[in-house]
């Protein structure tokens, strides 16, 4: 009897075990498919980081130019990454490197915080001050984030890049370096010597990497073409008194003062002291308040006859012979109710967004190394001319012959039009010129 009961127990247990196993092995029913018309979840955005100095008009207006380009691209559906369209999203941090008292270390900390917290896929504009750009190159290399910088002008970027091209391959410059505007101002000096026989030159520059490189180009050209050097002086970026240099220029009978400056406060003080001291010399160079579209209001009618280089074209001056500069600045003014303030690099910031978008679509991915290869293949005709990168140094190629072949800049002079209104008249190169250099009556 006991054996029979035990046998029944074993059979029952076996049947129960088989039932449980069979149930577990049944295929799980799939959830019903989503209805055909149901919208898909939006793709994650492509993050563009903008770490730059918002104290400076260069940083502020450059950021506006980036946002303008991003809006245009997003309005058309964004950027195709492989088979997926994704929108751009801009994230910003103020590096404060345009403020004379800000340590470079603080700027780098702000930049690194942006990288770690916002995780950008690429960086545009980048540090304002050349010293901060050079210091940040190792940071970019560490995190392997493609960067297209559009403000800092020092040629030291190329020298640093050449020390380890593989390490620094993520960095690109889509704007001029200081030697380009230096070359353009040198051409303006040639015009002054040829047309008016001027020969006495005083050079004053901001004691920063970009301005010294600019000034060195002008100085060398002056020495090679017969200019007599009245003085060659550097002033600290935070300087607030330029009367010693202006006195030297006046007493040395300088006919031309070539100045290179970008700090808004110092440039404004210089302009006021120049006017107050009645220095009988023509101002030539890069002094943003005197080259700005708002110069007549900010500085006064004394800006007449001053000569400024704008780099690249389209930064603040619409050129009749280059329609893309007109189109960009019209859109900028429509959106922001005014033209960009500084006569430099705004068009580069705008172009950089399209350069990045096209590179992403060529690469078909946001992978940094593949994106670098795609950026090296850039051939973009933008507001600032034709932008292609020198593969050995990742710098945009600029010249003064043909905007269909290279990026270009422009030299202009403040002159009165037929109604007596002061306007900026392009005088060099010939392919954009709308007038000739005029000499002030007090210099004739």
Offer a few descriptive terms:
444 residues, alpha/beta, seven-stranded mixed sheet, five-stranded parallel sheet, 14 helices, 18 strands, globular, disordered N terminus
Describe this structure in words.
With 444 residues, this protein is an alpha/beta fold. Helices cover 42% and strands 19% of the residues. It has 14 helices and 18 strands. It has helices spanning 2-25, 57-75, 104-118, 130-143, 156-163, 179-196, 209-224, 243-251, 264-276, 288-291, 295-298, 323-336, 346-363, 368-376, and strands spanning 46-52, 79-81, 84-86, 88-94, 122-125, 147-149, 171-173, 200-206, 228-235, 256-260, 282-286, 307-310, 380-382, 385-387, 389-390, 395-396, 410-416, 422-428. The protein has a 7-stranded mixed β-sheet, with helices on both faces. A hairpin with a 4-residue loop joins strand 15 and strand 16 (395-396). Helix 2 (57-75) runs parallel beside helix 13, helix 3 (104-118) packs parallel to helix 4 (130-143) and helix 6 (179-196) runs parallel beside helix 7 (209-224). It is globular. The protein starts with a helix and ends in a 16-residue tail after the last strand. Mean pLDDT is 91; it is low at 1-41.
**Secondary structure: number of strands:** 18
Number of helices: 14
Strand content: 15-25%
Low-confidence stretches: 1-41
How is the biggest beta sheet arranged?
7 strands, mixed
If you average the pLDDT, what whole number results?
A: 91
Using only C-alpha atoms, the radius of gyration works out to 30 Å
**How would you classify the helix and strand content by structural class?**
alpha/beta
Strand order of the largest sheet: 9-8-10-11-12-17-18
Helix content: 40-55%
Distance between the termini: 136 Å
| Shape by Cα distribution | globular
């Amino acid at each position: 009897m006991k054996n029979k009961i035990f046998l029944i127990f074993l059979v029952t247990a076996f049947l129960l075990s088989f039932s449980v196993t069979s149930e577990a092995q049944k295929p799980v029913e799939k959830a019903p498919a989503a209805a055909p018309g149901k919208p898909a979840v939006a793709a994650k955005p492509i993050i563009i980081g903008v770490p730059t100095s918002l104290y400076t008009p260069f940083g502020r207006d450059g950021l506006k130019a980036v946002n303008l380009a991003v809006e245009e691209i997003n309005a058309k559906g964004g950027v195709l990454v492989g088979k997926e369209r994704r929108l751009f999203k801009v994230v910003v941090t103020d590096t404060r490197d345009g403020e004379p008292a800000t340590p470079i270390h603080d700027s780098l900390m702000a930049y690194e915080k942006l990288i770690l917290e916002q995780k950008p896929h690429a960086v545009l504009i980048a540090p304002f001050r050349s010293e901060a750009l050079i210091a940040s190159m190792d940071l970019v290399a560490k995190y392997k984030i493609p960067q297209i910088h559009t403000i800092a002008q020092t040629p030291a970027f190329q020298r640093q890049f050449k020390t380890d091209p593989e390490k620094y391959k993520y960095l690109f410059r889509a704007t001029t370096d200081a030697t380009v505007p230096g070359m353009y101002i040198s051409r303006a000096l040639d015009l002054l010597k040829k047309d008016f026989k001027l020969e006495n030159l005083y050079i004053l520059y901001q004691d920063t990497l970009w301005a010294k490189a600019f000034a060195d180009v002008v100085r060398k050209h002056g020495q090679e073409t017969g200019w007599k050097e009245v003085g060659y002086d550097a002033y600290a970026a935070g300087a607030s008194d330029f009367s010693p240099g202006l006195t030297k220029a006046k007493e040395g009978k300088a006919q031309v003062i070539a100045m290179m400056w970008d700090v808004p406060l110092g440039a404004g003080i210089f302009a006021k002291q120049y006017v107050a001291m009645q220095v009988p010399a023509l101002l030539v160079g890069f002094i943003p308040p005197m080259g700005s579209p708002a110069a007549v209001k900010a500085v006064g009618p004394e800006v007449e006859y001053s000569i400024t280089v704008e780099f690249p074209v389209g930064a603040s001056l619409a050129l009749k012979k280059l329609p893309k500069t007109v189109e960009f600045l019209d859109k900028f003014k429509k959106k922001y109710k005014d033209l960009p303030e500084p006569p430099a690099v705004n068009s580069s910031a705008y172009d950089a967004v399209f350069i990045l978008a096209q590179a992403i679509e060529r690469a078909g991915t946001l992978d940094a190394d593949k994106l670098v290869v795609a950026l090296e293949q850039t051939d973009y005709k933008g507001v600032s001319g034709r932008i292609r990168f020198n593969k050995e140094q990742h710098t945009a190629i600029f010249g003064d012959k043909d905007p269909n072949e290279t990026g270009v800049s422009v030299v202009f002079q403040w002159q009165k039009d037929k109604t007596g209104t002061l306007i900026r008249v392009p005088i060099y190169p010939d392919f954009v010129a709308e007038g000739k250099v005029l000499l002030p009556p007090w210099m004739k």
